[in-house]
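Listing S7. Sequence submitted for prediction.
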Amino acid sequence: MEISQEIRAKVLIEALPYMRQFYGKVVVIKYGGHAMVNSSLKEAFAQDIVLMKLVGISPVVVHGGGPQISQVMEKMGVKPVFVQGQRVTDDDTMSVVEMVLVGTVNKDIVGLINRHGGKAVGLSGRDGDLVIAEKMKIYRYSGDDRPPEIIDIGRVGKVKGVNPEVLMVLLQKGFIPVIAPVGVGPNGEAYNINADLVTGAIAGALKAEKVIYLTDVEGVKDSQGRLVSSLTIADLEEFLEKGVAQGGMIPKLKSARKALWAGVKKAHIIDGRVPHAILLEIFTDHGVGTEIVSHRED
């Protein structure tokens, strides 16, 4: 069905105040899930990023790559092992993680954005000591009368700090940073870090206007499985405490909370399976997915 000229004009007019509002602002996007593997969604993502840049927004992309890492490991005859959702990462596995995330996935995303007219630059958290990592500790509880067992899962880290200077320089020069979630430890060693957590930390360090998480569901669901269009930090805390949030949604909510605490205006968890979901979220009146704010305005 052909779209009429009137509808086309209305779409542009609806977007105009948002272009004005977000001009010159930083938006950090977590790129992952189905949007990273479906060819048409990959193209749409790159177009969204380039369009944002062309209208004066400064996008920063943080990407995942867990399935790609597992695929390469299996081809090498190594079976991936997970404990409490975290990939067990010995030194050899860390080499594979870095090779896939930094050497393959990151460069593919950079190339895709550049092919659509952007000026993307690939980084890992080790570049310029961008993401400072510390070792993540995993505990196994075996009863109230016993101390928890500490499980060593190797070079899996959490974000200790962010040095955003390299990103600021790139943004000032008109580049689009694309970041692989590999952090640097106290002795210069690499750490594998959840991309959602890296996204929130970087958004907070840059005092971004928005942080957006692409995922493979419509957004945050309540206990009845209904989409929640808006949450506050207090609502988010309740969802985490009562176990309403499950699986991969937990690190996204924790990451969004950290970003908002650090001064980011809004967080959005949106369905990356929807073509041009980022543009729909930023430039339309109703948006898509779930919006998270510090508190509701009266």
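Caption to Listing S7: primary sequence and predicted structure tokens for the chain studied. The mean pLDDT is 90. The chain has one domain: 24-293.
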